[in-house]
Design brief:
homodimer; alpha/beta; nine-stranded mixed beta sheet; two-stranded antiparallel sheet; 36% helix; 18% strand
Chain lengths: 385, 385
């Protein structure tokens, strides 16, 4: 396998983009990434997307988007792994380039959620869970996470307010990210008074949907050496793992085994330990998922992630900055695009281009994207030379 | 890139499988392939599927099916490229194994179409075309193909009955394939009298939908040497290409440029020419697609594919046997599974296990899977040592 680098990145703002079609959104991100990379074509396009078949009555996004961005005749396919579709597309592109089969690959994540009625999108999101054994019981996705959070609070003796720092950190970090959906910092008081969605998950624990797209250009690492004046961002580790699709199938519903396995695989490939990670774009779809992720990937002891957050260690100046440009909570969670937003954000941090959200001296960053309630988790580690 | 072999294959019958769920169908094919290969686990699962999100209210098939077949914790994702989803999943598995990132990969194609009302499935199939510029004009998929066939007949001066040999050949070959949907040979008289679907496409020009799954186990080729008494089937060529998603975007609507490009890439990788191919599992979703495929991949001159068929050259004893186990027309076309049925069928032929449909002395076989109306085409060439 040959080493691979991220040569260019592009993204759209996460918001209600009613005036843009699915292909325009994806196209805007891809063309921005191609311009950033200084490339005019590519051999392959991998599209991460979850729900365009129902939300936009359009499948076959590989051909659909390749055609739109002037890559007609290139290889193209869609990769779907529910909310981890973005990272799954990135991993496909990574493996294709590292194999030598493809020289220039584009990975894009795109999702258009706000054209459809919310109840339709809620039903679509639930198709990431087990249709026979979870959905037929009437469980929505937020309800599944609420059950996990309640059990966590009971087992490890935390109150609801101990989760507030996750949301406060994400919102504070999004203020300087022009692509984020929200730019308003929130206070503990606002968190305490927030509307309940599915007890104990309040609206400040839950990431918002949105429309958006983010893209990256991947090339063999040796190629980037010839571009002067730009730091080279290499992908030094990648790992993917699944778990039972239904939470009830797991020995311990509070342990994200797929997060543990995928992170360990990525650490081993990179030859590093969690201590070497300077920032971590994790999948805070709900506060409880941020906590479980930190534990499974080796940054906190079991049941102790809220302690890390309460101590300020997850902030940009802490020991493990997370959600440095807003995370899912404040940048927004256009599901199939989220994994690619994370890659774009880690790249911005490692290039030193994160502006007011810059993590000082960031050299190594990790992105972790979760599909379903922890049933498909993909980790990538990037390093600046 | 290291060489890759197909170690095992499995499939279900194509029919109305109302008593089996999506995961049971996929599981039956995967477990049969694992048993055939003599492996008890795998590192990665790639699922080709087009429409489970709407037809079965279940997305996230990577985790869903990995969990079901006992591959919990393995890497898994779904790959979608409309009707070429099966080949796209196979190509993902191939690249993953050849890259060295994965040692044992499973590719499975699965589709469940007959639980839903036909008009719903017709609407779903149409999401493979261009939603904005084809579907909004009221075109269904068969209508798009009817327009192409009519133009072909006009341009190259063929009558409708000249397409009969494609259908007659597929039905004759399916008789000995226990996994095929139809086992009834048809006559030219039956073709002539067949119900019209979308003129000039009659029901004998059109492949039937169905439920089914087919799977293959891919491993590094050097690993297979150690299994005595079994011929080794290597993947010696692979290519993928797209074209404009809407037919009206193409310079020549009767030339499958993506078929030409993907086949040429596969020929080059394999170091062979069309003359070396002993059998060709092509994508006869409609007779016109069989004709266009034979021309674009180098087996017939432009406008002359019906001649090849009328001369009997596409039969098992001809110069280029096609659809040797029934093709899409008579084996059936469970869309996202079709590409994997083709891989399974080529493997059966090269192993000499095709029974009454065996092509004599088959050494090299090609499979070609088409997504949309020619907008995504993937070719694979397999060889027995």
């Amino acid at each position: 396998m040959r080493p691979v680098a991220v040569l260019g990145i592009g993204q759209t703002k996460v918001e209600e983009q009613w005036e843009k079609s699915l292909r325009e959104l994806a196209g805007d991100a891809i063309l921005a990434a191609m311009q950033d990379a200084g490339v005019e074509t590519a051999d392959a396009l991998y599209v991460g997307n979850m729900m365009s078949g129902s939300a936009s009555h359009q499948q076959h996004l590989g051909s659909y988007i390749a055609d739109w961005v002037g890559l007609r005749f290139a290889e193209a396919a869609r990769v779907e792994a529910a909310c981890s579709s973005g990272a799954a597309a990135f991993r496909s592109a990574l493996i294709a380039v590292s194999s030598g089969e493809v020289d220039v690959a584009i990975a894009v994540g795109v999702e258009k959620m706000t054209d459809s009625p919310t109840e339709e999108i809620t039903a679509q999101l639930a198709t990431a869970a087990d249709a026979d054994w979870e959905l037929d019981m009437g469980l929505s996705f937020v309800a599944l996470n609420a059950l996990a959070m309640r059990r966590y609070m009971e087992q490890y003796k935390w109150d609801k307010i101990s989760f507030a720092p996750f949301s406060i950190n994400s919102h504070a970090n999004a203020v300087h990210n022009p692509y984020a959906r929200f730019h308003e910092p929130i206070t503990e008081e606002q968190f305490r008074k927030a509307t309940m969605v599915a007890e104990p998950i309040c609206i400040m624990d839950a990431s918002p949907m949105g429309d958006g797209a983010a893209a990256a250009i991947l090339v063999p690492a040796e190629r980037v050496r010839s571009i002067p004046g730009r730091p080279r961002i290499r992908v030094i580790g990648s790992g993917a793992a699944t778990d039972s699709i239904a939470i009830h199938g797991r020995r311990n519903p509070l342990w994200l085994r797929a997060a543990e396995l995928s992170a360990k695989a990525a650490y081993a490939q990179a030859g590093i330990t969690p201590r070497d990670i300077d920032l971590f774009e994790l999948h805070d779809a709900f506060s409880i998922m941020a906590a479980l992720s930190l534990e499974a990937t080796g940054f906190a002891e079991r049941g102790q992630a809220p302690r890390l957050a309460l101590d300020g260690e997850i902030r940009p100046t802490g020991s493990i900055p997370i959600c440095t440009l807003g995370g899912l909570k404040a940048r927004g969670h256009p599901v199939g695009a989220t994994g690619m937003y994370q890659i774009v954000e880690v790249t911005r941090q490692l290039r030193g281009e994160a502006g007011g959200s810059q993590v000082p001296d960031a050299r190594i960053g990790m992105a972790q994207n979760i599909g379903g309630s922890g049933s498909n988790i993909i980790a990538h580690i990037l390093q600046v030379d």
